[in-house]
Amino acid sequence: MTREATLARQLLRTGRAAGRGSLDGRIRFVALLCATVALALALAAMAATWATYQSRETRGAARSPLLHAAEGGVQSPSLLWKETGDHVRDRQFSVIFIEPLVDGAPLPPGVERWPGPGEALISPALLAEGDDEGITTRYGKLAGEIGPEGLADPGERLAYVRPADGTLDGDSAYRIHGFGSPSAWALGDVASVKSLSVFISLLIAMLLLPAGLLAVVAARLGAVGRDRRVALIGALGGSRWQVSLLGLGEAAAPILLGTTLIGSLVMAAFLTDIRVPWTGYLLAAADLREHALVLVAAVVAAPLIVALAVVLLHPPAASGRSTRPQGRPRSRAVKALACLCPLFLLILSWYPAAAARSGATPELTLVLVGGSVGTLATLPAVAALLISAAGRGVTALGRRRGAPGTLLAGRWTQGRPGYLTRLVAGVVVAVGLLCVVQVYPSVNDSFVRGAREARAQLGLSMLMVELPQGVPPARTEQWVRALPDGTQTIAYGTSMSGERPDGADGPGASAEVRMDIVVRGQCPALDALGLACPDTVGAGYTTDPNTAAPALRRLVSDSGTDRISVERGAPIGEAGQLVVFNQNGEDLPLRDLKRTAYAGIGPLATVEPLGQSWIGGAQLLSDQLRWIPLLGTLGVLLVAFAATMNNLAEVMRFTRAIAPVSVLAGSRKVYASVAAWTLMAPLCVAAAIGVIGGVWITLPLTTPPRTGVLPGSTLALVSGALVTLAGVMALCAARGAVRESDRWRPHHD
To answer: By CB distance 3.0 to 4.6 Å, which of 293, 375, 485, 726 could disulfide with 683?
Structure first.
């Protein structure tokens, strides 16, 4: 073995021994372990997201219909294809009606054989909803399940239905040549998920940034002792490479253990589908195996990044005889970060106006995430410089009053922006993430609340029926005659009319175009809605909707009109929209009516409760927003853990460093004073700056036309909790210093 190799092994062993023998060695071990796991988890989540989106896009394209024949292929269409929507437990999903036109027509992916007329194939996730809503019989006889290669993801709800012969025609459906479009059509989960850039942005802001913060904090824990060792090696002529080996020897064990833990989780994800907690999303193991190299590269990159942070965050081994830590370069780095903070604040101030002009485009979303991440990353440096500058005033105050504790605290704080940045970073970032988690779900809260109110008021007593084009009226009439007793039917539509404003009689006066709601039905149905019935069939009148029954007012509440046209006549025509309702306000059997409408009226008929589109959109939005609390909570926990590890190490070092002070000051009260100025005061300042930063980064979500809300009670609660925790930490530090002073002797190091 060469001399260099022997020296390298010795340095690695020395670093390992120094880490285990240092004052905060165990704390740093846990911090490095958790930092490796957190960073690997964040990178693996980003890789898994990319893999999932790639596989979803591939399967989505494979099942998308071909509207034109392939070059050299059969030129005549092979089958009819039509996609519509439906709901189960208020969740939207796609229903695809297919019918072969020729023998041997191509099958969509995931379908092994053609279902017979009146049969359906349903995805496993849709079948798992149970039969409370009649899924297994809603579209006809259940013929089997859709295979995984035909689903965007394992949890997708999807149905392929072959309607009865003759009910699907070329006027209402696409005539297609097969499947395998160059790009995926927007159907099923492909249409409902957010774009890849949006989700990756959330992972960066809420998971990767806190994991990076934890890695930096873990790398610098116990920095004073290591800085002295580095300076000693520099004084002995050691190189930067030898210093790096010393640091790697200290950090190798926790980094390797963390990599092993996250590697075990990734291996489990390769073997079986994993349901993501809280969101209910099922992560497909097949997708991860297909892109295994990307996921493995992400896991391997995490320990390398943590090891690189351990090496680079050491000061260079300076030549000379001093073994004191070198802090100047890090002070310049803190100042550089602080100078970048106003730029990110300016970006966040500009975003609302830009989004109001062009909407929240993906490009603007990336700008928003970049501004938020940049603000949270640089704001701790600003807080550190402010607190460091205030240290001069604290020093002067202690000197004037002859208070040794205040004087010592001022000198301790002054000129140490690196230490202060690590001290306050966790608080600032945690408050910012908490504000985002609080505001983001409230952006569309009014929409969700209005949808829920409509359902609570009417329940299933009023249903909307969409009649497809070309359906013979006799089919609809037969279905209406089979409705339960007490059910009334009206036709519902809109009409446009032009009126000149009062006093505008000139030839150049423009007409005001307005939309009216048109209601047509027989007298019993009109009477049940609180509308007067015209004397003769075909007669009509206009009225104010406020004079109608509550059910009708709710029906037209979102139309934006203040006038209803009422006609007496048969509600059933060639096509259009019907409203069926129970005149006593009782719920209608939606499950049975859906099934009979598909079978009797036609496959494209839809029967939904009033406001189902609002409810379905609200439920979809609610499902998507579940990711925000999940990722935000993980991010806050990582930041809180980083702050705890950092501050615990600082408290331990603080208690050891000031143990001899009582001998010089003549009183143990000095410990409380020093702890208040060096721990509690900076953390309280950080809480205030964190609240300001949290309000600032949520401005794009709370500034009109966005409707997000950041409650003042939340800010007050967070501020109070942080101030209390700062006081508890200062008290623990003071008591620890008292215990250390009892054990201290002049020869004690």
So the answer is: 726
How far, in whole angstroms, is CA 195 from its chain's centroid? 12
Which DSSP letter does residue 505 get?
A: -
Higher pLDDT, 182 or 359: 182
Share of the chain above pLDDT 70, in %: 78
Do 568 and 540 touch, CB atoms closer than 8 A?
yes
Indicate the pLDDT class of residue 100, thresholds 50, 70 and 90. Answer: very high
The residue assigned the tokens 């780095």 is 333
Q: Tell me how far apart the alpha carbons of residues 653 and 668 are, in angstroms, rounded to a whole number.
A: 18
pLDDT top residue among 118 and 2: 118
In this structure, the dihedral spanned by the alpha carbons of residues 162, 166, 170 and 175, taken in order and rounded to 10 degrees, is 40
Question: What's the mean pLDDT in 690-706?
Answer: 83
3-state secondary structure 13-69: HHHHHHHHHCCCHHHHHHHHHHHHHHHHHHHHHHHHHHHHHHHHHHHHHHHCEECCC
Handedness of CA 726, 732, 733, 738 (dihedral sign): positive
Cα 637 from Cα 659, distance rounded (Å): 32
Which position has the token pair 């409203």?
A: 579
Write out pLDDT tens, residues 184-228. 888 888 888 888 888 898 898 889 988 998 898 888 776 555 656
Instruction: Give the number of C-alpha atoms closer than 13 A to the C-alpha of residue 571, restricted to the C-beta side.
Output: 27
Q: Which of 196, 167, 72 is nearest to 469 (CA)?
A: 167
Is residue 528 within 8 A of residue 551, CB to CB? The reply is no
Decide: 394 and 413 in contact? Cβ < 8 Å.
Answer: yes
Report CA-CA distances (Å) from 66 to 84, 150, 163, 223.
Answer: 18, 16, 21, 63
State the Cα–Cα distance between residues 250 and 342, nearest whole angstrom: 38
> Which percentage of the chain shows pLDDT scores above 90?
25
Burial of 745 (0-12, 13-18, 19+ CB in 10 A): exposed
261 to each of 41, 258, 303, 526, how far by Cα in Å?
10, 5, 12, 68
Give the residue carrying structure tokens 């206009």: 542
Q: What CA–CA distances, in Å, run from 458 to 92, 140, 580, 621?
A: 20, 29, 13, 22
At residue 116, φ and ψ (nearest 5 deg) are -75, 170
User: Whole-number mean pLDDT of the chain?
Assistant: 80
| pTM exceeding the 0.90 threshold for the entire prediction | no
